Amino acid sequence: MSKVRWGVLGLAGATVAVAGVWSLRGDVPMQGATPPAVAEVHTGPPADLEQEVRALRAELEALRRAQGRLEQQPHAPATPPGGSVTAKEEGSEGPDTAPTKEAEQAAQEQRRRERVMELDAELEAAANTEPRDTQWAVPTESLVTRSFQGPDFTGSRLTRVECRTHLCTLEVEHDNGDAQAELLTSLLRVQGLRGQAVVRPQNEGGRRSSRVYLSRAGERLPMTLRK
Amino acid sequence: MTKNTFKKSVAALALLGALPAVAGPATYAGALCTSVSGFAAPSIFRSGRLINQTGGAIEVVCPVQRNVVAPSFNENVSFLITARDPHLTENVCCTATLTEPDGTAITADSGCTAGADTANPKTISLNLATAFASVNGYIALRCELPGPYSGFQSTLSSFYISE
Q1: Where is average pLDDT lowest: A72-81, A175-184, B140-149?
Q2: Which residues are registered as beta bridge partners of B125?
Q3: Residues of A in contact with B111 (CB under 8 A)
Q4: Looking at the record's lineage, which domain of life comes first (chain B) (predicted)?
C-alpha cells in the first residue's frame, strides 16, 4: 500500500516538473519555428489559386470539346463506300482505315474552323478597340471609297469602311460570285493599299457580301500565329 | 493480339498524319511565272530569270506547289521575292494570295521594292496566315514589273517559299 502511495506521489512530482519546464520554455523566443501570424491570413483566394482554377476550367473546356468530337466521329463515316461486312470481319486494311481517315479529316477541319474563329476574334477585337489615327484613317478611307468607283470593282459595292491606326474594316456587297472572288486581288492592286488582308466571304440566301480586314501598308494584321 | 496491334498502328499513323506538317523551304525561278498582261509577254533568260523587255509595265502570276501534308491547318507561309528594280519612280510589287478551291481569294499580303537600283537585286518579304483556307485551298504569287527605265529592265529572279 505504501508502495502505491510512493508511486502516486512520484508520478505527481514528475508531472509538476514537466509542467514547470514547459512553462519556462514558453517564455523563451523560438528561433526555428515561426508562429502563425493572424495578419497574414488571406481572406480571399490567392492569385495563384485563381490562375490554377482558370487553367483547370480551360482544360475542362478542351476536354469537353474533344469528347464532343469523339462522340460525333462514329456517326460521320457510317458505311465506307466499297466496304463489305466480310472484309471487315477479316480485319482487312480498307474498311478499317477509311473511316479513321475520314473521321480524322473531319476532326482536323473542325480544329481548323476553331482556329479561324480565334483569329477572327482577334481581328475583330483590334478593329473595335484600336484608337483612330485620323492622319492615316481619313485619307485611307477616301482612297478605298474612290477605288470602288473604278472598273476593277464592277459588281461590288462598298457599304462601310472604317480605319483605325493599323487596320481598316470594309463591308462590301456583291452582285455575283465572280465579283466576290476577285475582291481581294482587286483591292491589293490599288496603290497605297499594300499590306495584309483577310476576307470573310458570306453567302446568305444568294445575298453575297464580304467583310475585309486590311492592314496599314507594310504592316501586319494583328493575328497571333502559333508557329 | 495481332489485330489489336495493327489497329493501334493504323490509329497512330492517322494521328501522325493529322499533325500540322512542316515542309522544307523551296526556291523557284522567275521563269515559272506567266504573264497575265495580254500580248505583253516577258522574256525568260537561260538562267531562269524573268525579264520585262516589253515597252510598258507587265503583270505575272506564279503558281506555287504546296508541299505540306495538311495544308488547311498550316499556320503560315512566308515568301521572299528577289527582283531587280531599276525604275526611279515605280516599283516591283508582289502579292501572295491564298484562295479557296472555288477561286475566292480569302487572304493576301502585298509589298513592293523601295527605291531604284540598276545593279543589285532587291527583296520583298510577304507572309500569309494559311489557317484560313479549307482543304485544297491554293496559293499564288502575282507580281507587277514596271517598264524599262533609261535602258534598264525590271527582273523577277526568284521566289522563296517556306510553309
Answers
A1: A72-81
A2: B80
A3: 194, 218
A4: Bacteria
Q: How far is A51 from chain B (nearest CA, A)?
A: 28
Burial of B108 (0-12, 13-18, 19+ CB in 10 A): buried
Question: Under a CB-based contact definition with an 8 Å cutoff, are residues A199 and A186 in contact?
Answer: no
Q: Mark residue A179 as left, alpha or beta (left: phi above 0; alpha: psi -120 to 50; beta: remaining).
A: alpha
C-alpha atoms less than 13 angstroms from C-alpha of B153 in its C-beta half-sphere = 16
All residues at 6 or more sequence positions from A128 whose CB lies less than 8 Å from its CB, including other chains: none
> Could you state, in order of their start, the residue ranges of all structural domains in chain B?
23-162
Residues paired with residue A201 on neighbouring β-strands, in sequence order? A210
Residue B147 and residue B52 in contact, taking contact as beta carbons nearer than 8 Å: yes
Amino acid at A149: Q
User: Is any Cβ of chain A less than 8 angstroms from the Cβ of B73?
Assistant: yes
Q: Which residues contact A227 (CB under 8 A, 6 or more apart)?
A: B20, B22, B75, B76
The answer to whether residue A47 scores a pLDDT higher than 70 is no
**CATH number for region B23-162:** 2.60.120.260
Q: What is the DSSP letter of B42?
A: P
Residue-level pLDDT at A105: 81
Range ranked top by mean pLDDT from A90-104, B22-36, B38-52, B92-106: B92-106
Domain A134-215 is found in CATH 3.40.1350: no
Q: Is the dihedral of CA A106, A112, A118, A124 positive or negative?
A: negative
Find residues 186-205 of chain A whose CB sits inside 8 Å of chain B: 188-189, 193-201
DSSP assignments along B110-135, one per residue: EEE--S--SSS-EEEEEEE-GGGS-T
Residue B43 Cα, gap to closest chain A Cα (Å): 23
pLDDT digits (tens, 9 = 90+) for A142-158: 999 999 999 999 999 99
B40 touching chain A per CB within 8 A = no
Enter the DSSP assignment of A30.
P
Please count the CA atoms within 13 angstroms of the CA of A81 that sit on its side-chain side.
1
Q: Domains of chain A: which residue ranges? A: 134-215
